[in-house]
Design a protein that fits this description.
heterodimer, A: 543 residues, alpha+beta, Uridine Diphospho-n-acetylenolpyruvylglucosamine Reductase, domain 2, Uridine Diphospho-n-acetylenolpyruvylglucosamine Reductase, domain 3, Vanillyl-alcohol Oxidase, Chain A, domain 3, 5 domains, five-stranded antiparallel β-sheet, globular, B: 130 residues, mainly alpha, Cytochrome Bc1 Complex, Chain D, domain 2, 8 helices, 51% helix, 0% strand
């Protein structure tokens, strides 16, 4: 049996016995075989001495059991690491950030406590997955949609606390922003509710977010200040209809006004769903987008050169072939007539760009039929799936798949100018780091006020390759920060290096986090090191 | 060098994800799980657990990474759908669930208990010839 660092074998044995008394012997895992199930399957340290691994795992079923486990851990100063469904692959999975921690596995806490159709919210426990919540709502015939991330096996609580996103209207896409009220077990075992939940018998815990006094919910996201055991989420009432439409602009520099108009349309609520950027021209070049026609000889020759040197020639080619250089697909959720009117209005606005063309997209009266569900990108309709894992899985195009991925994901300004600048910077960086050089990359539009780039790094079981990729990743983090672009979320292997870039005024923000950490978790038992926040005794040990 | 080459190919695929995603609507996706496979009462436990725990990746329809991967691996020599196979052993099924393979992760006992895994393994080997 592994022993957590800084804990005596005797104390650990006593604690394990008490954990067993608290949750039942069958839900305390200490054998090497069982503890190995908590390895991060997508660990960039796979097979190395530095791989982040658990010493044991404890799986409570109730809040009271969580409180007992936390009190025991606090008494013996045992590091513990809560996970919800443990499927945050690419961001640590079910493995701890501080090797040797005991994983507090909350998967058994899988109760859907309430789904309220009248006020459109749900209250759930951490072990509930998006699949679970969707299935519950379907079986009950409740006319509410859940905004789902790409992998549906994740937990609404875990995903929102890690600040993940989805695809529906802006109010719901940011999963942390769409939460309303939480229940937290603190490091001393005390139970706390936030927002209106702090009032005994509150009737609006899931209806009014901030309650009274400081609104502290954000402190429990991307942090290690407490164990969240309940969270409320606002759900989207099933819309009347869905409509999509695509605008295509002819020249590369049209990207700039296209984004400006998109932003205006989105921020005035004309278009409500998540927009998608694309390039009909570059999709002909092969890997940029599936489904485009193959390039002819002329385009192949142009794409063989660095794209920054051929933009004007590509403009001429696009004009000659009548194909758009860039595109933006809008989606509308609402009354069918209103959707159609909003799309017409969007066309009118985009028509300010000379040569803009439009293609009507999918139009559905909701809910979708089973047959229609087979023809759509299901997360856009609040339906969970695992389709994202098709990227990276074995396929005809990828006959030798890796063993997972992590994401380099900087936030950049929501402007066309920033897209061109990011492409210049990341192309140069890719050359410097001997990474494959993307011809041109477009960001995604999860957040309505900032773009996010998603560059995947493969995880392999080749230790040297992982080492090179980790070094390249950290260098990219630095390069992005030099341009004022910060990561929105990252894997444990890089959390400290990313936090290091949020360094305004001599790391004042991190110092604040550490002050809070030391005050509310003086023994430093909760998720040590998560998001770069280390407890005092480990900061001192690290010097 | 072979390993490095393979790694870079994958890196290429991944490094371009940012631009591969926008063609969302061009991709037809169906989900057996989301349409008709919520198990009804009285179904065998192995079928129920397989449906709940495995079919989102290994079921029928476009956009099922497990099915696509097995089609690419075996090219029809054996069925891409796990529940159509007759050559799997229970030990092999358990090995993959508890250790993962390629991008398929490890599944913990709080997700799929030993008893549920026994049932899944029995279901997936139900048609094996003795």
């Amino acid at each position: 049996m592994k022993i957590p660092p800084g804990v005596s074998a005797g104390d650990f044995a006593d604690a394990i016995k008490q954990f067993e008394d608290a949750v039942g012997k069958e839900w305390v895992f200490t054998s090497d075989e069982d503890v190995a199930l908590y390895r991060d399957a997508y660990s960039p340290f796979w097979g190395e001495a530095d791989e982040l691994v658990a010493s044991a795992a404890v799986a409570p079923d109730t809040v009271e059991q969580v409180q007992k486990v936390v009190r025991i851990a606090n008494h013996y100063k045992i590091p513990i690491y809560p996970v919800s469904t443990g499927k945050d692959l690419g961001y640590g999975g079910s493995a701890p950030t501080y090797s040797g921690s005991v994983v507090l596995d909350l998967k058994r806490m899988n109760r859907i406590l309430e789904v309220n159709e009248q006020n459109a919210y749900a209250l759930v426990e951490p072990g509930v997955s998006y699949f679970d919540l969707y299935r519950y709502i379907q079986e009950k015939g409740i006319k509410l949609w859940v905004d789902v991330p790409d992998p549906g096996w994740g937990s609404p609580i875990g995903n929102s606390l890690d600040r993940g996103g989805g695809y529906l209207t802006a109010l719901y896409r940011n999963h942390f922003d769409s939460h309303c009220g939480m229940e937290v077990v603190l490091a001393n075992g005390e139970l706390m509710r936030t927002g209106m939940g702090a009032m005994p018998g509150a009737q609006t815990w899931q209806q009014y977010k901030s309650g009274f006094g400081p609104w502290i919910d954000g402190m429990f996201s991307q942090s290690n200040f407490g164990v969240v055991t309940k969270m409320g989420f606002w759900l989207l009432p099933q819309p009347d209809a869905y409509l999509s439409g695509t605008v295509m602009v002819p020249k590369h520099e049209d990207l700039i006004p296209m984004i400006d108009i998109l932003n205006w349309l989105e921020n005035t609520n004309c278009t409500t769903g998540m927009p998608f950027l694309g390039s009909p021209l570059l999709s002909r070049g092969g890997p940029l987008s599936a489904g485009g026609p193959p390039p002819d000889a002329e385009l192949t020759a142009l794409l063989a050169k660095p794209i920054a040197t051929t933009l004007n020639e590509l403009d001429a080619y696009a004009q000659k072939k009548g194909v758009g250089f860039f595109s933006c697909t809008l989606s509308f959720y609402g009354a069918a007539e209103a959707n159609a009117a909003n799309w017409e209005f969007a066309k009118e606005k985009f028509s300010a760009i000379p040569g803009a063309k439009f293609v009507d997209g999918q139009s559905y009266k909701l809910p979708l039929t089973d047959e229609q569900k087979g023809n759509v990108n299901v997360p856009l309709f609040g339906i969970p799936s695992l389709r994202m894992f098709s990227i990276g899985a074995r396929s005809e195009a990828n006959p030798t798949p890796g063993n997972g991925h992590i994401w380099f994901a900087p936030i950049i300004p929501r402007t066309g100018e920033a897209i061109f600048e990011a492409n210049r910077v990341f192309t140069d960086a890719a050359k410097e780091l001997n990474l494959p050089v993307p011809s041109f990359s477009l960001p995604t539009c999860y957040w309505e006020r900032g773009f996010i780039y998603l560059f995947g790094f493969p995880i392999t079981h080749d230790i040297e390759a992982n080492k090179r990729n980790r070094a390249a990743f950290d260098r990219l983090v630095q390069i992005a920060a030099q341009h004022g672009w910060g990561e929105y979320r990252t894997a444990p292997a890089h959390q400290a290096s990313v936090m290091d870039t949020y360094s305004f005024n001599n790391h004042a923000l991190l110092h604040f986090h550490e002050t809070v950490k030391d005050a509310i978790d003086p023994n430093g038992i909760l998720s040590a090191g998560r998001y770069g926040i280390w407890p005092k005794h480990l900061r001192e040990a690290k010097g | 060098m072979k390993k490095l080459g393979a790694c870079l190919v994958v890196a290429l695929a991944f490094f371009l994800v940012a631009t591969a995603l926008p063609a969302q609507e061009a991709v037809s996706r169906s989900s057996a799980w989301t349409t008709s496979t919520t198990p009804s009462q009285g179904e065998p436990r192995g079928y129920v657990q397989y449906t709940n725990d495995c079919s989102m990746c290994h079921g029928e329809g476009v956009g099922k990474p497990g099915t696509l991967a097995l089609q690419a691996k075996y090219k029809g020599a054996v069925p891409a759908l796990l529940d159509k196979r007759t050559d799997l052993t229970q030990a092999l099924i358990k090995q993959y669930v508890r250790n993962g393979i390629s991008i398929m992760p490890i599944f913990r006992k709080t997700e799929i208990s030993d008893a549920d895994l026994d049932a899944i393994a029995a279901y997936l080997t139900r048609n094996n010839k003795p």
